Automatic annotation (TrEMBL):
One Pfam family from the record: Diacid_rec
Domain Putative sugar diacid recognition: 2-131
Protein name (record): Carbohydrate diacid regulator
Superkingdom of the organism of origin: Bacteria
Organism: Carnobacterium inhibens subsp. gilichinskyi
Residue runs in coiled coils: none
Domain PucR C-terminal helix-turn-helix: 270-313
Length: 334
């Protein structure tokens, strides 16, 4: 279908380069875009004839019903979806009519490809959500969708292989369906062959599971944890290596009052807190890693305590801070 928006875009782009008035009509012969805005919404007699007779209609004399010009049907997938008309002597405007028609078809093709990709993306996203919500118990309709659309046999054991770039996964298994997930992409493999990566790639591999929803959650939590702690290394990581990643499911509801305070502190002090926790609360090691003076670090820790009411030097308050900083980080990432 040729939309008014598409037609208007074509006319506006080409009117500056073509010294004749351009009209684009829909499949009923109604003008939906024109260099002469007064004609939009009116019937175009020659276009109606072009649609009915399925051929180019050229008008050589102005009448009270028609103006001189060439009118050529736009045929897409063996169907007339509109007509291009250019006003002027047919011998002069005929080449321009073909140019406008070609541009129209290219734009329609490009927009349809984009539309199909967007529909596929939305369908895949909804499919993954169903897998998570099903918690490993799959309906027959979901099994059918997985088998027919994505060549997945739900109920079988799969590995999830995640990467931040799609090309990485193509090199691992180019025939497998690639799904957008979290901040990257994921494929599902029944067996796991040795995987090699370049120095600039991070790959996360899940455990072998029947519950694909669990695979998705574990990979997301592992990636969040690696990002939060700034542990993201290039190479292969496995979800079962990091038990701590389970905290990133955030099954415990956050303290909303503390979370508000964390939002205030996070932009300036999140990195300091994470580094402090990663270095076992060592002032020396943390200040060295951050390349700041010990006094500066002590000042930052004091500010965190003043803003949040939690002392990072006390281990259980540090964990409370860590949990809420991580929760804030997750929502900022999403």
């Amino acid at each position: 279908m040729l939309t008014k928006k598409q037609a208007s875009l074509i006319v506006s782009k080409l009117m500056g380069d073509i010294p004749y008035n351009i009209n684009i009509m829909n499949d009923l012969g109604i003008i939906i875009a024109s260099g002469d805005s007064n004609r939009i919404g009116t019937s175009h007699r020659a276009a109606e004839r072009a649609i009915k007779e399925k051929k180019i209609i050229e008008v050589y004399h102005d009448t009270h019903l028609e103006k001189k010009g060439t009118n050529e049907p736009i045929i897409y997938e063996d169907k007339i979806i509109g007509v291009v008309g250019i006003t002027g002597e047919p011998d002069e405007v005929r080449p321009f009519t073909k140019i406008v028609k070609t541009v129209s078809l290219l734009l329609i093709e490009e927009l349809n490809i984009y539309k199909q990709k967007e529909e596929d993306r939305v369908a895949k996203k909804a499919f993954l959500k169903q897998l998570i919500d099903s918690d490993g118990v799959y309906t027959e309709s979901l099994k059918k969708e997985a088998r027919e659309n994505y060549k997945l046999e739900l109920g079988k054991l799969y590995y999830g292989v995640f990467a931040e770039g799609k090309d990485v996964l193509r090199s691992v298994a180019y025939k497998k369906e690639v799904f957008a997930w979290h901040e990257g992409y994921i494929i599902f493999l029944e067996t796991l062959e040795p995987i090699t990566t370049r120095n600039d790639e991070l790959i996360i591999i899940s455990t072998h599971e029947k519950n694909i929803g669990l695979i998705l959650q574990n990979i997301k939590q592992t990636h969040l944890m690696l990002s939060f702690f700034k542990w993201k290394k290039k190479g292969i990581e496995r979800t079962d290596t990091y038990y701590l990643a389970n905290l990133f499911s955030f099954s415990i509801p956050p303290n909303q009052d503390l979370l508000k305070k964390i939002k205030e502190a996070a932009p300036e002090y999140a990195e300091t807190l994470v580094c402090f926790a990663r270095n076992n609360k060592s002032i020396n090691d943390t200040s060295l890693e951050l390349h700041i003076h010990r006094n500066t670090l002590n000042y930052r820790i004091q500010k965190i305590e003043e803003i949040t009411g939690r002392n990072p030097r006390i281990w259980y308050e540090l964990w409370e801070l860590f949990y809420h900083f991580a929760y804030h980080f997750m929502n900022e990432e999403d």
